[in-house]
Amino acid sequence: MLEADRRGKDRVVLEHELMTFMAAGAETSAATMGWACYLLALYPEVQEALRAAARAFWHGDHTDWQTLSKLKPLSRFISEALRLYPPTPIVARYAIDTDKLGTTHVSPGQNIMVSFIGVQLDRRFRADPWTLDMDDLSAKKVTGETMAFSIGPRICGGKQFALLELMTFLSVFLNCARFELTSNKPPSYFWKSQMLRDGGQPVRVVELN
């Protein structure tokens, strides 16, 4: 974006990128935070382990972003939240050449809808895809962090900023609050441009002493 700002002809592109960064990013980050709070309340043992990690960070010698970004348990949890409940459930792409997906032929000019939910919850990758998996992600072929922001040249420009937001939000709240379920009812989805929960998240935030 900085390079585009130096070239007048690309100023419109820069403005579009900034609008996407500030507007679209706010909604998707908020949706992810909501699902993350729900998962913390749903898995209290995971919440306690993450709280211990967050408090170790805040009481450590270095409380900067470089140190926070290396907090593996928290980054694994965020990746799983993005995998289970991707804020953007589908993405559209425009075919520029012939291709074949399985038995389906793709022609130039066709609009292709890619389902992140279908990919991230595919049983070929995980035996129980709907369960929170906090194991080491290095061996996983599909993770929330690798898919939720798209991949390749069209990857979301706000990826690192969004991860910074999520890591900061969760580390602060885990340090001073507890998330509790107010209902055990399974999620009912409200589909917009994001993957939301109909009626909001059944979560209560309790301040810790």
From TrEMBL:
Its cofactor is heme. Heme binds at C156. InterPro entries: Cyt_P450, Cyt_P450_E_grp-I, Cyt_P450_sf, Cytochrome_P450_Monoox. The keyword Glycoprotein does not apply. Gene3D superfamilies: Cytochrome P450 (1.10.630.10). Keywords: Heme, Iron, Metal-binding, Monooxygenase, Oxidoreductase. One of its GO terms (molecular function) is monooxygenase activity. Belongs to the cytochrome P450 family. This is Cytochrome P450. It comes from Brucella intermedia M86.
